[in-house]
Amino acid sequence: MSEKYKIKILEKTFDVLNTFTADNPEQSLTDIEKKLDINRTTIYRILVNLETYGAIHRNLNNDKYRIGSIMLHYARVYKSKYDFHEIAKPYIVELAELTGETVVITKAMNNIGICIDRINSKNVINITADIGKPISLLRGASGKIVGAHLDEEELLSVYEFEKEYLNQSFDEIKEKLKEIKDKGYSISFEEFDKDTAGVAAPILDIDSKFVAGVALIGPIFRFNEENIKFYTESVVKCAINISQKLGYY
């Protein structure tokens, strides 16, 4: 933003609001002051004004502050009109242009993964994807990132559906998917399609719930040691950017 359009008190107001997180939902004036390079009196004035409009609530029992209920109204207004595809599109286009590989977004549907959006690679040698294409949820990066976020009952149903193609027990599958979920991304080499590799990461919403997986897929020879780190970092960044647009922090 151009300096001439900046409103300093507005910047400071958002600095104050941004100190509140899911891990620190309630804070004292002193807590906020320690986090910001802003005069204590200015912080207090901002809090008083935010409280007047319902954006901040002060707990009278301990004199600490938390985000006010008016924010729920704004969240509902935002969610009432946002279109997931519209939000995600510029980020998956950017990822495809940055890496030169195909990008897919996948969700679960009746024990399989479904491609709900994609940007196909423009490389001569590539792996393309079609919207509506079914994939495994237990093999391949784009499917496993979805499978990793299923509850145990859903995962068991998927396992029963796919077990004839697997050489692992349900407990082994469950443990590997837990590792993927904890790590925050999935990498695969020729697990679902021959000569194909992929990297995937989860897209989460305002409630930290899984929405879909975003994945980069391409010929295995390009997913070499030199590229794999860059691909992984790029996919994770893309997923985080989309998640934040959905309200995740």
Q: What brief labels describe this structure?
A:
249 residues; alpha+beta; three-stranded antiparallel beta sheet; 9 helices; 9 strands; elongated
Describe the protein in words:
This protein has 249 residues and is an alpha+beta fold. Helix content is 45%, strand content 20%. It contains nine helices and nine strands. α5 packs antiparallel against α9 (225-245). The longest helix has 21 residues, at 225-245. It starts with 7 loop residues before the first helix and ends with a helix. The mean pLDDT is 93.
Please sum up the structure shown.
Helix content is 45%, strand content 20%. With 249 residues, the protein is α+β, with helices and mostly antiparallel strands.
**Termini gap:** 22 Å
| Share of residues in helices | 40-55%
Name the overall outline.
elongated
**How are the strands of the biggest sheet laid out side by side?**
6-5-4-9-8-7
Q: What layout of secondary structure does this protein have?
A:
Layout: H1 8-17, E1 26-27, H2 29-35, H3 40-52, E2 56-59, E3 64-67, H4 70-81, H5 84-99, E4 102-109, E5 112-119, E6 134-135, H6 141-147, H7 152-162, H8 170-183, E7 186-189, E8 196-204, E9 210-219, H9 225-245
Antiparallel strand pairs: 1-3, 2-3, 4-5, 4-9, 5-6, 7-8, 8-9
Helix pairs in contact: 5-9
